[in-house]
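Exercise: predict the fold of this chain.
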Amino acid sequence: MSTEQDTQPISGISPSVVREQLVMEVWPSISAYGAGRLVGRLFQIPGRVGPVRITFFIGLVIFWLPLLLYFFPGRLLTRYTLTNRRLLIRKGFPGRDAEEVPLEEIDRLEKQVLPGQEYFAAADIVALSSDGTERLRLRGVSQAECFYRAILKTRQARIRTLEALKQIEQRGQAEQAPAEAAS
């Protein structure tokens, strides 16, 4: 009976230096757009008219706006992708890379909840470099906390992998130097 040896120590996992792997992909909510945030703000208006909430009447007047935003072509064809090497915005079909930032170039991540986004449980995720400049902004990420944590963990893994590879390379060079001097 023959068994094939998998080249990966953990099935489905490969180091970021071998190949790029998809970690997570999300699509922006309608709160990525100003009109979507306006809808979120309107739906947060408190109060009732008798037993009916005011937001019911607002919904009757503007029910078409969230539908229009949801099926807006730019929204359907935009997605935020996290790989084991980079964070990127992909647009179009099947998806071309529009903007990207390598994970090791992200110094800090921020979640910014704009007015109207809290209704949709969404936020903007901003990747900042070491000098504080904005490298990439992911607008209106639905359930942003989950994606935010995934970015942090993947970034930490990427940095640790690169540091370990650098140490291995330095050790290899240090071991080669005495061998070359002896010959």
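Check your answer against the key: DSSP finds five helices and nine strands in the chain.
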